[in-house]
Q: What sequence folds into this?
């Protein structure tokens, strides 16, 4: 008898994610995949290509653009969507643009609320999506560890952490009333290491910002901020320096701290991560605004 | 444990290769905060170097604010994620945690222990292959330990680790440990566990958590991590007969038709004979398609797409199974139910039942007995409250393929959904199928439909008039009702416009509202049939599925579909209410026949040529048909 190989943990995680995506395609009329261009989104998109093969994924990608993303992210986004033949919706909160909302002028909290949270809700209402995939993982943050894979949202996009639907076996309850929606997290059970291992194993393209190279940065409140365009005002005493840096997470460039690194390929990144002593969300300014910050943001409709 | 902090760059690739070969074990921890459950998980994360510096710093901050361990780090705060939980010092909801050893990756479902959170524990247990049940060494086996063991067994977990915690507080006393393990074994007899491993440990100090402690030199068993590393994973599923519940029909173009789903049992190769249930059509597997190429073989746990040799009509929710080991198909079965809603379960109420991708209408026909979760005693019950467990008979409105839960979890575990609120209100585990005649129990009512109808010298029926606006439905129905009245029969006419003024005043003309409109009318008509009346329903009812739904509500022969078949041009020329004109002018959206479809009946009981005959003549034809059918 042939020696029997049990599925590896990555094979199991992959199968679980594919199962979730197929449930969404079958249960909802108008799903969308929220595409944030980061490594988790790259894995999500790759899994979607697998889940429906030889069909194309039966939903579009949507990027909520705050207008403050790294330029390399935008280039990568447009290139990937074109290569894979996916429909891409880009949504910008024009009200926020008109009012000139930005992280430098209004601070990270207002900027994130208007250009990300409100903008996302605007887009979901505009296109009447009844399900939206996101790349969030349970290992990222404490309140995410308790969120369901099918996460119910009211017609005003609110999450009620104390009143979640029980989720058993692989039976996902996607029933909703008109106007309500479900956020779906197929990567819930993946860890950061799983994501990188999978990217390496499957050779999934990621934004080059994850790899180290000399980039113009300023040091501000102990965080290295990359000067990605001319909109970044320098404070007295600040100078732009060329340093070898890379990013562990990608968001709005003024709110995303770089780390000093010489890791120029995936294996080196993973090596740095394995010996690292600080978690990936540390680079994000927004989580630290207040205690239980993510839980509050999620309740209000932030992913 | 997995400690890669000293890994050299040049070894990374080899290390990753080894890491990607790991197995995955999902387990659940049961116990309450007092037992040190959250501390134990915090300890596993902490000692396996899964925590980063900033998380540790945040933990230090949280410990000072909410901690219960004085100056020590309160590891429990790592896992209590919600603000309400930190404030109240309790665990409310299931949290999933991740860590790894050199051999395995682990997903831990951390669940609350109090009785009022039974549903959360059941949720966490549903996907676990092993349970760690915590006991405080000072307190021994308590009522809640028994409850946890019972629930774990109910959800089909066969491997148990009995973690006797806080051994440091009983001086690592061997006698105390052995007494507790023996108590537990005695009680757990009959719960069907395949293995029970007792481990003396201290989550607070770390003894016997990761490696053997020198403070328990009398203990020769594994540490907790060693037990987790050697537990059985996954293989059981592969031993089952082949099953694939179809999630999604994959049709990119006319040349390809595949059936996508996750294999829940066994293995499959091209050429294997399969059967599709419930239709019982057979075929052979032609190809196993994946993005990474076609496979020679696929096993339980894999998500694939199957192409068959024959054209078979298969839809979502059907099960493709090994032809020589078919699952049973039934619409009546006995099951263990766990009720998860604040609103009690009432037998007879219609619910939705979801078993894998299959969703059907269902009801609990009888509660055989409730089970006391603390004592496992059987008690009588008329309804079930939140967190109560019972053995019930369940009936579905169509036959479903299933496997007994004890043998195949994925094939026998279902959730129950409330039709109005859409909330998951319960879950169940199928025990065995029931034969219909001998097991259906209905609420008995002395005066029934037949009695009422007999008094009126008629058989109750629904005459469902469907057709375009202006086709003449209501005119014919009115003429018919007059004739029935003159003949001394009891009838009632439900007319679209009239009902929309009252019962359905809140509904518009979107597809969703149209469906609800018909559902309410159909249910009303059903009540009138139960009252013994000849019920005339005059509604455009443009969708086949809703007319089908109305038909299915009543017994065979009671539903008579009357299609008033008048061509659109004639209806539009008549335009008795001026609606077509408005619709054409764009002042009226979703108008049937103009910008909303009308799905004509395929096999109506009667088809009336509305453009050719007078209403009175058509009413006479219906009278003849009713006589022929014995309704009047």
A:
């Amino acid at each position: 008898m042939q020696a029997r190989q049990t599925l590896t943990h990555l094979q199991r995680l992959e199968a679980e994610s594919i199962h979730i995506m197929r449930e969404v395609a079958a249960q909802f009329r108008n799903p969308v995949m929220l595409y944030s261009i980061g490594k988790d989104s790259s894995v999500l998109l790759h899994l979607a290509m697998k889940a429906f093969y030889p069909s194309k994924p039966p939903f579009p990608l949507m990027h909520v653009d705050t207008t403050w993303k790294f330029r390399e992210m935008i280039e990568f986004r447009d290139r990937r969507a074109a290569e894979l033949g996916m429909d891409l919706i880009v949504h910008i909160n024009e009200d926020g643009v008109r009012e000139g909302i930005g992280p430098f002028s209004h601070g990270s909290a207002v900027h994130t609320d208007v250009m990300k949270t409100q903008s996302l809700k605007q887009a979901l209402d505009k296109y009447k999506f009844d399900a939206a995939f996101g790349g969030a993982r349970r290992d990222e943050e404490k309140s995410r560890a308790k969120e369901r894979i099918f996460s119910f949202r009211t017609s005003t996009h609110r999450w009620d952490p104390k009143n979640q639907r029980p989720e058993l076996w692989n039976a996902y309850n996607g029933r909703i009333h008109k106007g309500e929606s479900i956020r779906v997290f197929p990567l819930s059970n993946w860890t950061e290491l799983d994501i990188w291992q999978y990217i390496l194993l499957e050779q999934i393209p990621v934004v080059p910002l994850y790899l180290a190279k000399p980039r113009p940065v300023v040091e501000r409140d102990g965080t290295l901020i990359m000067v990605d365009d001319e909109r970044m005002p320098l404070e007295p005493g600040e100078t732009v320096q060329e340093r070898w840096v890379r990013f562990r997470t990608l968001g709005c460039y003024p709110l995303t701290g770089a780390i000093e690194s010489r890791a120029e390929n995936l294996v080196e990144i993973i090596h740095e991560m394995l010996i690292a002593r600080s978690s990936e969300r540390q680079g994000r300014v927004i989580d630290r605004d207040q205690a239980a910050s993510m839980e509050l943001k999620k309740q209000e409709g932030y992913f | 444990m997995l400690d890669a902090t000293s890994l050299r760059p040049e070894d990374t690739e080899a290390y990753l290769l080894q890491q990607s070969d790991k197995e995955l074990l999902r387990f659940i921890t049961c116990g309450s905060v007092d037992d040190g459950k959250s501390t134990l998980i915090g300890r596993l994360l902490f000692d396996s170097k899964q925590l980063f510096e900033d998380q540790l710093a945040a933990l230090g901050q949280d410990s000072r604010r909410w901690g219960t361990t004085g100056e020590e780090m309160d590891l429990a705060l790592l896992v209590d994620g919600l603000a309400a939980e930190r404030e109240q010092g309790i665990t409310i909801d299931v949290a999933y945690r991740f860590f790894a050893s050199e051999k395995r990756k682990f997903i831990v479902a951390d669940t609350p222990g109090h009785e009022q959170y039974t549903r959360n524990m059941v949720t966490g247990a549903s996907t676990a292959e092993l349970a760690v049940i915590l006991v405080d060494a000072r307190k021994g086996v308590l009522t809640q330990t028994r409850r946890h063991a019972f629930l774990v067994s109910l959800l089909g977990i066969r491997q148990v680790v009995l973690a006797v915690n806080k051994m440091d507080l009983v001086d690592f006393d061997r006698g105390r440990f052995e007494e507790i393990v023996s108590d537990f074994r005695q009680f757990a007899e009959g719960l069907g566990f395949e293995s029970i491993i007792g481990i003396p440990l201290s989550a607070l100090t770390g003894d016997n958590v990761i490696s053997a402690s020198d403070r328990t030199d009398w203990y020769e068993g594994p540490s907790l991590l060693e037990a987790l590393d050697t537990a059985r994973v996954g293989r059981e599923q592969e031993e089952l007969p082949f099953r694939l519940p179809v999630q999604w029909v994959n049709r990119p173009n006319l040349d390809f038709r595949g059936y996508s789903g996750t294999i829940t049992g066994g293995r499959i190769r091209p050429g294997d004979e399969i059967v599709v249930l419930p239709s019982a059509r057979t075929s052979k597997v032609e190809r196993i398609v994946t993005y990474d190429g076609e496979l020679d073989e696929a096993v339980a746990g894999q998500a694939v797409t199957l192409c068959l040799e024959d054209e078979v009509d298969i839809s979502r929710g059907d099960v493709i199974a090994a032809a020589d080991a078919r699952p049973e198909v039934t619409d009546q079965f006995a099951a263990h139910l766990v009720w998860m809603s604040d609103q009690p379960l009432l037998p007879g109420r219609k619910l939705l039942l979801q078993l894998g991708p299959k969703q059907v209408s269902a009801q609990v026909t009888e509660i055989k007995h409730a089970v006391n979760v603390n004592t496992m005693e059987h008690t009588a019950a008329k309804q079930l409250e939140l967190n109560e467990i019972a053995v019930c008979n369940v009936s579905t409105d169509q036959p479903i393929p299933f496997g007994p839960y004890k043998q195949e979890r994925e094939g026998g575990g279902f959730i129950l959904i409330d039709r109005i609120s859409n909330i998951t209100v319960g879950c169940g585990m199928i025990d065995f199928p029931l034969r219909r005649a001998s097991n259906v129990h209905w609420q008995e009512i002395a005066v029934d439909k037949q009695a009422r109808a007999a008094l009126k010298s008629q058989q109750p029926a629904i005459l469902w008039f469907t057709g375009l606006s202006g086709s003449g439905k209501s005119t014919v129905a009115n003429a018919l009702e007059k004739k029935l009245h003159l003949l001394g029969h009891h009838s009632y006419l439900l007319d679209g416009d009239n009902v929309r003024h009252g019962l359905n005043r809140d509904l518009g003309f979107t597809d969703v509202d149209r469906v609800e409109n018909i559902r309410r009318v159909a249910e009303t008509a059903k009540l009138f049939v139960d009252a013994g009346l000849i019920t005339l329903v005059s509604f455009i009812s443009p969708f086949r599925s809703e007319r089908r739904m109305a038909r299915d509500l009543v017994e065979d022969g009671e539903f008579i579909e009357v299609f008033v078949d008048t061509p659109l041009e004639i209806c539009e020329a008549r335009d008795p209410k001026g609606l077509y004109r408005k619709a054409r002018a764009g002042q009226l959206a979703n108008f049937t026949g103009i910008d909303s479809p009308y799905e004509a009946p395929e096999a109506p009981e009667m088809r009336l040529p509305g453009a050719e005959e007078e209403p009175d003549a058509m009413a006479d034809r219906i009278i003849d048909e009713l006589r022929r059918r014995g309704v009047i």
